[in-house]
Amino acid sequence: MEGLLLSVHVLAGIVFIGGSAVATSLFSRYAPVATSVAARPAVVGAPVAPQPETSGDRDRAVAVALHRITRGYGVFGIVVPVVGIALAVTQGRMGEIWINISMVLTVAAGALLALRICPEQREALAVPGDGKRLRTLSMLAGIYNLLWATVVVLMIVRPGAQA
Predict the structure, then answer these.
(1) Tens digit of pLDDT at every position of the chain (163 positions)
(2) Is residue 128 a contact partner of residue 53, using CB atoms and an 8 Å limit?
(3) Long-range pairs for 1-9 at CB < 8 Å and ≥24 separation?
(4) Disulfide-capable partner of 23 in 10, 66, 71, 147 (CB 3.0 to 4.6 Å)?
């Protein structure tokens, strides 16, 4: 049973957490950014309405797909901690510090994804901004990835583990 749980835990982590980590990292590169229209406004003195950027690497369709991956894989990623907890209980390791720290970091990563990253991505797709939101999203993606990298290191090193 431990072998099956460990296999599901690792494979789900690679597919779902890895997929959401890549998607969050790439989103800012493809999300639309509002730019000024090159043509003059119809009425002198009227504000120029921002238009989504369509040139260069920006591609709204790719950004939409990355948002769907972020959201969907984030939901399916719940398998990773659920199976991880089942594995820790099966192995009798729930009291070990590396398991507890990993669970706290996992909750933090999940909360960051659900409460900040996904809503910000949705907003960036709905209303292209000047790029500030995308810079924030890039930073949040980096923090999200750092949290998961820390969890992986804890899973490998297992500080305070019982032999």
Answers:
(1) 999 999 999 999 999 999 999 999 999 999 999 875 443 445 555 554 444 444 457 899 999 999 999 999 999 999 999 999 999 999 999 999 999 999 999 999 999 999 999 999 999 999 998 899 999 999 999 999 999 999 999 999 999 887 6
(2) yes
(3) 1/90, 2/87, 2/90, 2/91, 5/83, 5/86, 5/87, 5/90, 6/87, 8/79, 8/83, 9/80, 9/83, 9/84, 9/87
(4) 66
